[in-house]
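Progress note, sequence design subtask.
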């Protein structure tokens, strides 16, 4: 099993992680391990959308209209 060290972690983040771990009844290390495991296994939204589009026939023939509008600056005054 691998280990990592996180340097420069804000003390308030550490405190929130410790509180969250306590709420879940586990060590802070176990809490961080769970957070990282869940975060790394989430599907990538772009790939998920591409797969859905492919499954329904793709988007190769989807017509994209030309844009004729121009960006405008905002006047806050």
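Output:
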């Amino acid at each position: 099993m691998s280990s990592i060290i996180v340097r420069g972690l804000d003390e308030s983040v550490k405190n929130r992680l410790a509180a969250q771990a306590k709420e879940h009844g586990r060590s802070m290390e176990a809490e961080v391990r769970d957070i990282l495991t869940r975060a790394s296994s989430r599907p990538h939204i772009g790939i998920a959308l591409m797969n859905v589009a492919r499954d329904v026939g793709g988007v190769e023939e989807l017509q994209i209209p030309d844009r004729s509008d121009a960006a405008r600056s905002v006047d806050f005054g």
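Helices lie at 11-23, 28-40, 45-55. Work on this subtask will continue into the next period as scheduled.
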